[in-house]
Amino acid sequence: MLPEITPTQLKERLDRQEPLQLIDVREPQEWAICHLGGELIPLADLPKKAASLDKEKTTVLICHHGFRSAQALLFLQQRHGFTNLLNLKGGVHAWALEVDPAFPVY
């Protein structure tokens, strides 16, 4: 089972200002609609950018519904040895439903 974090849990950790590395693996046009901050690294670009990520920091992977971010998590675990990874369960869509009803959905 993939390590996950719910939108509510992520909100609590962000509110506590925990040092999280947020990586959004959606496409730029999706990011332009809505995002939670962090860094945009489209899934296709992840192999080129993986070495620039901080392996020590807890990293939350984000996408629209949680599928691409799950792929990113497995890639970083299996190919780059990351151990501090969490997949945002349900992605930004779940964030809008569970945490912030004003957050744009698409």
UniProtKB/TrEMBL annotation:
All copies of domain Rhodanese, residue ranges: 16-104
InterPro entries the UniProt entry points to: GlpE_sulfurtransferase (IPR050229), Rhodanese-like_dom (IPR001763), Rhodanese-like_dom_sf (IPR036873)
Classification via SUPFAM superfamilies: Rhodanese/Cell cycle control phosphatase (SSF52821)
Family annotation (Pfam families): Rhodanese
PANTHER family in the record: FAD-DEPENDENT OXIDOREDUCTASE, SULFURTRANSFERASE YTWF-RELATED
Listed name of the protein: Rhodanese
Organism: Rufibacter glacialis
